[in-house]
Amino acid sequence: MAEINMVPFIDITLILLIIFMVMSPLLVQMQLTVDLPKSNAINTQAEDDVIRIEVRKDGTISVMNKNLTLRNLERELILRMGKANKKTILVQADKDVPIQQVVDVFDIAKKLGAAKLGIGVLSKN
């Protein structure tokens, strides 16, 4: 009885699998473009518990519409948070802001013991 030799078929299949596994991340990485999402969600949390920090592309930082520098941000957050660390901090940034500035704001908020941290995108109003 003649039998079909499956070894060459399996070799070719494994070689093709390896080629596709190596090439697929490269193809995805070249074609990946990220647009920031737009949200129309309604805030269900009380406004008293939320501290809004805005980071603009020109480097200005404002807490509840009060312009600050990064150095003064920690002092302002200490005053706003008080002794109750149950506050939520929402960081809203322009889409052109370097991520390092947002991370610096998160670091300060986390160091002060904020209960929750949130991130958002500034609307174009």
Summary tags:
125 residues, alpha/beta, Nucleotidyltransferase, domain 5, elongated
Describe the model.
The chain has helices at 7-31, 70-81, 99-111; strands at 50-55, 61-63, 66-68, 88-93, 116-121. A five-stranded mixed sheet has the order 3-2-1-4-5, with helices on one face. It has 125 residues and is of the alpha/beta class. The model has no long low-confidence stretch (mean pLDDT 82). The protein is built from three helices and five strands; from the N terminus they run αβββαβαβ. The protein has a domain at 47-121: Nucleotidyltransferase, domain 5 (2-Layer Sandwich).
Q: End-to-end span in angstroms?
A: 80 Å
Helix share, percent: 40-55%
Strand order of the largest sheet: 3-2-1-4-5
Name of the CATH class of the domain at 47-121: Alpha Beta
- Round the mean pLDDT to the nearest integer and report it: 82
The assigned structural class equals: alpha/beta
Largest sheet: 5 strands, mixed
Explain briefly what this protein structure is.
By secondary structure, the protein is of the alpha/beta class. The protein has a domain of 75 residues: 2-Layer Sandwich (Nucleotidyltransferase, domain 5). 40% of the residues lie in helices and 19% in strands.
